Amino acid sequence: MTAESEYEMPRGRTGFGTLSLYEEQPERCSADLSDNTNLWGMPPAAERALKSFSGAGARGYPSAYTPALKEVLASRFGVSPSMIVTGCGSDDVLDSAIRAFGNSGSRLAYSEPTFSMIPVLARVNGLIPVSARFDNNWDITVDELLSSDPEIIYICSPNNPTGTSARIERIERVARSFRGLVIVDEAYGEYAASSLISLAGDYSNVLVTRTMSKAFGMAGLRLGYGIGNPALVREVEKSRGPYKVSTIAESAGIAALTSDLPWVGRIVEETLVNRARLVGLLHSLGYAPLRSDANFILLPVQDASTVAAKLLSQGVGVRPFTGLPGIGDAIRVTIGPWKLMQTFLDELERSVV
Ligand SMILES: *Cc1c(COP(=O)(O)O)cnc(C)c1O
Description:
This protein has 353 residues and is of the alpha/beta class. The chain has helices at residues 44-51, 67-77, 89-101, 117-124, 142-147, 168-176, 197-200, 230-240, 247-259, 261-284, 304-313, 338-351, and strands at 31-32, 84-87, 107-112, 128-133, 152-156, 181-185, 206-211, 224-228, 296-300, 316-317, 319-324, 328-334.
């Protein structure tokens, strides 16, 4: 065996040398509050669809662009199916959109801190990620986002990892004062009071992305979608390519969107109740979590890596962040059934120094 470092790289474009692979949670833990997935499980009709899936259904190719799933999504949101693009997780939709509209060497602007995949997706598509600051209220700063003359602007609302939302008026101001693509990532849109989806069709340059990975509890199936003007969506779909959504993911997604909306609605309500309760208790213990519109909270702590490691050693997984602009160190905690929240609170008291 030759050591990896002794191999010579093939020639050609890389520039990926300084990128690292995505870091997975190192250990399984009994209370995994680290990735914002639905801790109540997966929706029942989707689960039944998985169980009734036969091997024969996997023999042939899936549909190239998931027309049946688009129909169901279109009726849910009251838009035309031609306004929808699906993908292998919303990561795939984001990646395809950036590739479709970003010229090599151009800039992608986003507010920092945000979803960690964004600078990565910019770079693997040859774009330069440029960060802007949030304002004091954790809203986007429109002028700063525009100031680097970007080709693409990414807005995450509610934002991961802060949990805070951008005001719709500000997002619309970006869309109006900018010719390039505006991506509005609503991965946590089910938990938020407002959404840009109903306005997406009014703009020729806005793509709203959503996922079945978070509120819908289907992260393992990899299913996401984007909503925008038909012409824009078509370009994203060309860039994405055919057959990105598996037959089994499409059928579970259709089942969930057809029959599980009440289930998801109840879970979302319980999430909001538990979030308010947890935030209240944290305040009374002297913590200052950021206000959240999502199914997680960001909790500033001293030395987040140590706190996270201590929690993990007690079976509680959280996501640590160090040196976040405007915050410092913090841990991100997924909201789940109250029993898990109580476990987190108990262990937090023992883990914070
Ligand atoms: C989790 C997450 C996604 C990715 O979701 P997938 O559909 O699983 O790829 C996208 N954006 C944000 C902000 C997220 O937190």
